[in-house]
Amino acid sequence: RPPHRALASPLPPQPQGPSPPPPWMDAIKKKMQMLKLDKENALDRAEQAEADKKAAEDRSKQLEDELVSLQKKLKATEDELDKYSEALKDAQEKLELAEKKATDAEADVASL
């Protein structure tokens, strides 16, 4: 039997150690880093927007509660005003009646 001979490889020999990445690979890595940064910034903005929305909703609820309270207070004040206006009207009518009686009485005394 003839001795075994190594066959010549049809591929060119590979360099030893890692080969440098092709230039387009760096461009892809940079683009991915930019997209990741954009995503993180968008998430931060979304988180801040949610916090702002929550704060605005809380403030709106607080103002609505305050409005309801002020409306109740206004209604009570208007009711009180109506009560005192009616009392004033009654007092004025009584005063006018008393003044008329006094005037009539003075006229009666003067005619004696």
From TrEMBL:
According to the record, the residues making up region (Disordered) are: 1-25
Tell whether Thylakoid is among the UniProt keywords: no
| Molecular function terms, GO-annotated | actin binding
| Bias type Pro residues, positions | 10-24
Q: Which SUPFAM superfamilies match?
A: Tropomyosin
Q: Which UniProt keywords apply?
A: Actin-binding, Coiled coil, Muscle protein
Q: Which domain of life is it from?
A: Eukaryota
- Coiled-coil ranges from the UniProt annotation: 25-108
Check the UniProt entry and state the signal peptide residues, or none: none
PANTHER family given in the database record? TROPOMYOSIN
What family name appears in the similarity comment? Belongs to the tropomyosin family.
Q: From the Swiss-Prot or TrEMBL record, give the protein name.
A: Tropomyosin 1
